[in-house]
Design a protein that fits this description.
By secondary structure, the protein is of the alpha+beta class. It contains 5 helices and 3 strands. Strands 1-3-2 form a 3-stranded antiparallel beta sheet. Helix 2 packs across helix 5 and helix 3 crosses helix 4.
């Protein structure tokens, strides 16, 4: 999928992937690919700046951890991040419903 199509949705995707467990950056990228059935191949140059931005906003917290013998920065959702994720989900549902109502074929009279 084209990364331009993801613009405006990356924050919600990252928050959602981190909802259940802390992950390091590469594991986040892998989770996006896995959860999307391989459709989302997001480059590191997109993910890491977004993670830093979300951390600065208070939606994520990070710490260094040793994962597989390597030191990696691990990110977790904060309570503010959970609130933001709930808002992103509501906004997405409204957006998808609105766009769907335009794109769905209408019965002719």
């Amino acid at each position: 999928m084209n990364t331009d199509a993801l613009r405006g949705h990356m924050d919600a995707l990252l928050l959602s992937v981190l909802e259940n467990e802390p992950l390091h950056g590469y594991a986040i990228i892998e989770a996006l690919q896995e959860r999307s059935g391989g459709a989302l191949a997001v480059p590191t140059g997109t993910v890491y700046p977004a993670l830093r931005r979300l951390e600065q906003a208070g939606y994520l917290a990070s710490e260094w951890a040793t994962v597989g013998g390597r030191k990696r920065r691990t990110y977790r959702l904060t309570s503010a991040g959970r609130t933001a994720l709930a808002g992103e989900r509501s906004a997405w549902q409204r957006f998808a419903s609105t766009i769907g109502s335009v794109l769905e074929p209408r019965a002719t009279k």
